[in-house]
Design brief:
Length: about 170
């Protein structure tokens, strides 16, 4: 029992020494009341500053959000205007393409007509040359006929003179 009592006492002393060390460490770690109050005041000030910063950040976030909404609305308006302008340009382009296609068809028709006209002109020139040659031949024939006619008139005149001379002689 004595040995057990000694062992218990030794264990109790060890535990007590350990508790004493812990208590001393806690006392050493303790802050004086004045310093604790200063730290509390500093903590309150920092919390107040933090609260103000959070409020400012919240205001800035709300303002930024409003700006983003406004910018987004402006972008949507600009996009809508760009879409409408693009649609207008597309419509204008289609109209211009249709006009160009119509003009191209007109030009093709005009070119075809011009080709037909050139062929007609060539035909008319050929016909004109034939007419000119025919006319020249007719003029030559007419000139030849006029010359023959002249000869015949001269012969007729000579015959009349001869008849005029012969007739008084035969009457006598």
């Amino acid at each position: 029992q004595l040995l057990e009592a000694k062992a218990s006492l030794s264990l109790a002393q060890t535990q007590h020494a350990l508790q004493l060390q812990q208590a001393k460490a806690q006392i050493n770690n303790m802050v004086p009341k004045k310093q604790f109050e200063q730290l509390q005041d500093t903590l309150r000030e920092e919390q107040c500053k933090t609260q103000q910063l959070q409020e400012r950040l919240q205001q800035q976030a709300e303002q930024t959000c409003r700006q983003l909404v406004r910018i987004q609305e402006e972008h949507e308006h600009l996009l809508q205007a760009a879409v409408e302008q693009a649609q207008g340009l597309d419509h204008s382009l289609r109209n211009a393409e249709a006009m160009l296609a119509e003009r191209a068809a007109q030009l093709r028709d005009a070119q075809a007509q011009l080709s037909r006209n050139k062929l007609l002109i060539e035909e008319l020139r050929g016909e004109n040359r034939r007419f000119a040659m025919t006319l020249q031949a007719a003029e030559l024939k007419q000139k030849s006929m006029e010359e023959k006619n002249q000869l015949l008139e001269e012969q007729a005149s000579a015959l009349k003179q001869l008849i005029g001379k012969i007739t008084p002689a035969s009457l006598s």
